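Translate structure to sequence.
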């Protein structure tokens, strides 16, 4: 039944293939020769199949595990350098008609306050986000056709892009909303979204249907095939993710990579991003009631093996994770993180008066604190949105990324957008650290012509100009 080119979820995420993959990996978890062969393939930056990746995830040989982590660090450096892209979530509404048992927004929860942002609310929230320094948002909304119709999402996107406060502007709006139709995806594309993000939650169909007992999200095939409809609707960049803790992590890992292989086989473009959230406490949700939680060591190895398997794909970790955990996985493959996040409907403009939070945040630091921390760790915080705005999306982005040429744009753009942040929003300590980092990093721009151009733009930013990009 397994067919990565099939349009049917049951065939490109074939249950039998997933189980066979787990059995194969378990049988070869100490097969040093096979593991060495897989690592050698990975070193050629060719990516890995889901079966090959599963063998590495299950590997029980200490010396080979050290090689896995070392290779993940090197591939992260080769494709993304020391840049970390910054973003923030913006929750528009927590009205929802689904019955998801792991999410406090489920329809039966009468304890949580329900709220939907008006357009004037959005102006206040986005202005507050701009005043923090953010340039990239991820829109979140519950699934409710009456309260959160697509027209509301489209109007909200237009409002967000229209807000220009002082030197602030949101330059990229990514969207994480429920699975919808090709026509609706086309409308989202026309509205100028960046990446369409949809977490699968779990790929295990039986578990999926139990975890989503009521509501439109109960339909496994409709949800799992959403990325194909999005790409048919003209959205070049899509983002995958599972919620680790709902089902056995080995199954989720294999199926997640099968989904990536499907997108590559059918559309010629794999996922633009992969997110790796873990279930967290929320209003009426106790993560201890879910038996499949993973510890930090397992989480780190999942990140490393995804990085090795799909080296071209951006990886996202949110404020669900602690500062210590985020520091660890940044080295192993993560390329995007959130900072100063609120997971409530509202809360950026002023503290929320009622609980509308989707999950508890483990990293409560301000954006400025996260920026200075990243620089202390040797990373370049980046607010770059240039590829999206220059049309380097989909197969065009992937071609540049796989060739390594994307670094010729991304590193200089990271420096220029960091300079904007430093001039407009940084604390004195962060400003001092950032300027020193930029002075050292500009020498790493290999092309002399580009280096001189970036130096010219940095001086112009210092003098008040904004929004330069390569």
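Result:
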């Amino acid at each position: 039944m397994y067919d990565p080119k099939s349009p049917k979820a049951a065939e490109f995420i074939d249950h039998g293939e997933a189980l066979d993959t787990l059995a194969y990996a378990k049988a070869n978890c100490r097969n040093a020769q096979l593991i060495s062969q897989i690592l050698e393939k990975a070193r050629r930056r060719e990516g890995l199949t889901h079966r090959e990746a599963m063998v590495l995830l299950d590997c029980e040989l200490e010396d080979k595990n050290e090689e896995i982590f070392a290779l993940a660090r090197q591939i992260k450096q080769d494709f993304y350098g020391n840049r970390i892209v910054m973003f923030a979530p913006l929750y528009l509404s927590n009205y929802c008609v689904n019955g998801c048992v792991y999410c406090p927004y489920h329809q039966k929860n009468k304890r949580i306050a329900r709220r939907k942002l008006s357009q004037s609310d959005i102006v206040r929230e986005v202005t507050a986000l701009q005043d923090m320094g953010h340039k990239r948002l991820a829109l979140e909304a519950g699934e409710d056709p009456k309260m959160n119709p697509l027209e509301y999402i489209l109007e909200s996107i237009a409002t967000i892009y229209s807000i220009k406060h002082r030197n602030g502007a949101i330059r990229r709006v990514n969207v994480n909303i429920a699975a919808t139709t090709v026509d609706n995806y086309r409308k989202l594309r026309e509205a100028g979204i960046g990446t369409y993000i949809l977490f699968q939650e779990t790929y295990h169909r039986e578990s999926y249907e139990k975890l989503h007992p009521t509501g439109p999200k109960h339909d496994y095939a409709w949800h799992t095939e959403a990325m194909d409809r999005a790409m048919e609707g003209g959205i070049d960049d899509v983002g995958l993710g599972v919620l680790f803790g709902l089902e056995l992590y080995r199954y989720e890992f294999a199926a997640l990579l099968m989904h990536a292989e499907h997108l590559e086989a059918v559309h010629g473009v794999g996922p633009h991003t992969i997110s790796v959230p873990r279930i967290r406490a929320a209003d009426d949700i106790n993560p201890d009631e879910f038996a499949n939680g993973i510890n930090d060591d397992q989480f780190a190895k999942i990140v490393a093996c995804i990085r090795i398997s799909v080296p071209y794909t951006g990886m996202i970790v949110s404020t669900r994770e602690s500062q210590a955990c985020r520091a660890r996985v940044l080295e192993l493959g993560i390329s995007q993180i959130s900072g100063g996040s609120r997971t409530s409907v509202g809360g950026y403009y002023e503290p929320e008066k009622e609980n509308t939070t989707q999950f508890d945040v483990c990293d409560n630091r301000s954006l400025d604190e996260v920026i200075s921390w990243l620089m202390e760790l040797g990373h370049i915080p980046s607010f770059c949105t240039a590829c999206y705005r220059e049309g380097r999306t989909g197969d065009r982005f992937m071609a540049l990324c796989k060739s390594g040429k994307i670094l010729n744009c991304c590193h200089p753009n990271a420096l220029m957008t960091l300079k904007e942040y430093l001039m407009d929003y940084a604390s004195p300590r962060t400003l001092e650290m950032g300027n020193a980092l930029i002075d050292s990093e500009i020498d790493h721009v290999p092309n002399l012509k580009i280096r001189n151009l970036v130096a010219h733009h940095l001086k112009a930013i210092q003098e008040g100009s904004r929004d330069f990009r390569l």
